[in-house]
Amino acid sequence: MEKVIDLRSDTVTKPTPAMRCAMAEAEVGDDVYGEDPTVNRLEALVAERLGKEAALFVPSGTMGNLISILSHCGRGDEMLLGDQAHIFHYEQGGSAAVGGVHPRILPNCPDGTIDLHQLASSIRGDDEHFPVTRLIALENTHNRCGGRVLPLAYIDAVGALAHARGLKLHIDGARLWNAAVALGESPARLVAAADSVSVCFSKGLAAPVGSAVAGSREWIRRARRMRKQVGGGMRQAGVLAAAAIVALEQMVDRLAEDHAHAQRLAHGLANIDGIRLDPATVETNIVYFDVVKPGWDAHKLSAALAAAGVRMNATAPNRLRAVTHYEITAADIDRTLATIEAVLRA
């Protein structure tokens, strides 16, 4: 049977043999009591990699972002974030539903940034008519803006703005590892200006489950309480943390291969009649493109590709997203391009 090429997301990756072995042999304890040595090792490793005082293992990135917001904001407080942010689109409004935190949505630029002047003018102080702005949230890399990498100077400027105005900065770094590889910088440098950061192990790093948040020791104590409140306290979680450790130690540097495959895909797509995209906008492992051939839309093309053994998601009436990962080879990219061309020509 011919391989199914699954480009729907990097979340479809399966754990590597080294991860499965580490999970089977993991030393465990009760993490709610702080007694799981493998979880403790993972959290220390994450804190070191991110240049923060402490870190906390959580089941998912959505939970990581939620407890980060809850640890910075009280009920009725406000956070500023982009209108294309994952927190805004794909996390069920948890900050408002669970924490009563008011999201103020500002337009994302095509590169994933938010205009600094608009950020500054949107910060509200202690006026009885308004919620008090407490937090700015950025996303790096930025999913809905095409996997774009936020410039270092921009992140530093947002951090300086936040701290000058008495706010905190949180970075949703689900794919921060991709950003670090793309820029050739350490992950710690990318989040030096941030008060908190969430990172994911189950996307490009291919662990089966898990994320982490990092910040100061005092802030992590609050985050730990919030994790317990939303049901994220885990017991013998070392079997999961073991895979995340392997992910950090073995799977980060190879993300450059995924970026190269995304470039190969983008340049190939740009040469297919009926497809529109600018390869220069592809910076990491995410490729968005539009189908512009008359009589076709994204859902029709997605269904036709799936029937031919290539999976990718429609994200808008005429837009599709493809995400490269460690299970995708250069040959898979070439077959994907040939399949798209054949389907549109039929």
Overall description:
The chain is α/β, with parallel strands linked by helices and 346 residues long. The protein folds into two domains: 99 residues, Aspartate Aminotransferase, domain 1; 234 residues, Type I PLP-dependent aspartate aminotransferase-like (Major domain) (Aspartate Aminotransferase, domain 2, 3-Layer(aba) Sandwich), CATH 3.40.640.10. Helices cover 42% and strands 17% of the residues. The strands form three sheets. The chain has a seven-stranded mixed sheet, sandwiched between helices. The chain has a four-stranded antiparallel sheet with strand order 9-10-13-12. The protein is globular, with a radius of gyration of 21 Å. The two termini are 23 Å apart. Keywords: Lyase, Pyridoxal phosphate. InterPro entries: ArAA_b-elim_lyase/Thr_aldolase, Low_specificity_L-TA-like, PyrdxlP-dep_Trfase, PyrdxlP-dep_Trfase_major, PyrdxlP-dep_Trfase_small. It is an enzyme of class 4 (lyase).
Per DSSP, the total helix count is 14
Task: Label the structural class.
Answer: alpha/beta
Under CATH at level 1, the class of the largest domain stands as Alpha Beta
Instruction: Point out poorly predicted stretches.
Output: none
Q: How large a portion of the residues is in β-strands, by DSSP E?
A: 15-25%
Biggest sheet statistics: 7 strands, mixed
Mean pLDDT: 97
Judging from the principal axes of the Cα atoms, what is the shape?
globular
Arrangement of strands in the largest sheet: 2-8-7-6-5-3-4
Task: Note the run of SSEs as H and E.
Answer: EHHEHEHHEHEHEHHEEHHHEEHEEEH
Number of strands: 13
CATH topology of the largest domain: Aspartate Aminotransferase, domain 2
